[in-house]
Amino acid sequence: MTSINVGSVKINHLNKSYDHHKEHSLKVLDDISLDIKAGEFISIVGSSGCGKSTLLRLLVGLDDQFEGKILVDGQAIDGTSLERGIVFQDHRLFPWLNVIDNIRVALLNSQLTLEEQNKLIDEHIELVGLTKFKEAFPAQLSGGMSQRVAIARSLINRPKILLLDEPFGALDALTRANLQKELQRIWQTEKITMIIVTHDVEEAVFLGDRVVVMQPNPGRIKRIVPVSLPHPRVREDVRLSAIRNDILTDFSHTLEDHLVIPTIKDFNQFQFAW
Fold first, then answer.
1. Could you list the residue range(s) of the whole structural domain that residue 113 is in?
2. ABC transporter domain spans which residues (predicted)?
3. Are 241 and 226 part of one and the same domain?
């Protein structure tokens, strides 16, 4: 029986810097602490440069140069693991492989028989709604369909945690909205922990049980906003709009307008190129 704690994440006083040369370094994450319950859907939202994608890289194990602790089910992460799947903004499908074989790539080190692999692949193709397109190649798929294949591939090894780095950022608004609904359905079906990084506040609120609002220079958590509404959610729910508008205030800055006063007062003193 699966433990109810499978997929929990604990981040303690995480700091991350990039060294430019011996005397100076650029701090990108500052004292990040966050507890994520197993099966929770967490949205991390922030403007460009707040370190949200860097945080995701640390969670997946692509970078081990940091201060602090990252624990998954109480154990410190040690490099990448099949227990932590990831989906990037770019679907990264192999153009010479069809949908079935693009997903099969994730099973290269699997001990499953070919028959077992095929059954598992079919289940995940059905999960993302692409059964009719399983023989198609990436060039024959839309951007949204390609991202569905990427999601299926990331789930094929039954990870405890799925990390998503702006997975719908390159898609048009209608496709993006449809895939958000699909992701919500998949999360409810798979019952695993999901963490999405996005700059889209509406997306963060629509999907997340909690929204982690980050601010830049260096990246740090400004506040964590609970979204205590049941799934599946309806985008038109005024309660979602109220939470979204509240979070948007964290990114609004009042700028004072100033007229530029020229220092040259005599028009004849200007020099022109003609």
1. 94-158
2. 9-241
3. yes
Which of 42, 15, 86, 45 lies closest to 193, judged by CA? Answer: 42
Same-domain status, 265 and 212: yes
What is the reported pLDDT for 253? 62
- Give the pLDDT confidence of 185-200 residue by residue, as tens digits: 999 999 999 999 999 9
Residues 164 and 254 in one domain: yes
**Pairwise CA distance, residues 150 & 174, whole Å:** 19
pLDDT in tens, 98-145: 999 999 999 998 889 999 999 999 999 999 999 999 999 999 999 999
For residues 146 and 139, give the distance between their C-alpha atoms in angstroms, rounded to a whole number.
9
Question: Does residue 207 fall inside a structural domain?
Answer: yes
Is residue 180 within 8 A of residue 144, CB to CB? The reply is no
Amino acid letter for position 173: A
Same domain for 79 and 191, yes or no, is yes
| Shared domain check, 247 and 136 | no
Asked if residue 89 is part of any domain, the answer here is no
Specify the DSSP class assigned to residue 233: P
Strand, helix or coil for residue 58 = helix
Of 48 and 11, the structure prediction assigns the larger pLDDT to 11
Chain segment 147-174, per-residue pLDDT in tens: 999 999 999 999 999 999 999 988 999 9
Show the DSSP H helices in 168-208 as ranges: 173-190, 201-207
Say whether both 216 and 108 belong to one domain.
no
Global confidence as pTM: 0.86
Q: Is the pLDDT of residue 274 over 50?
A: no
Domain check: are 5 and 26 in the same one?
A: yes
Residues 72, 141: one domain?
Answer: no
User: Strands across the sheet with 220-226, in order?
Assistant: 84-87, 161-165, 193-198, 41-45, 210-215, 220-226
Higher-scoring residue by pLDDT: 82, 12: 12
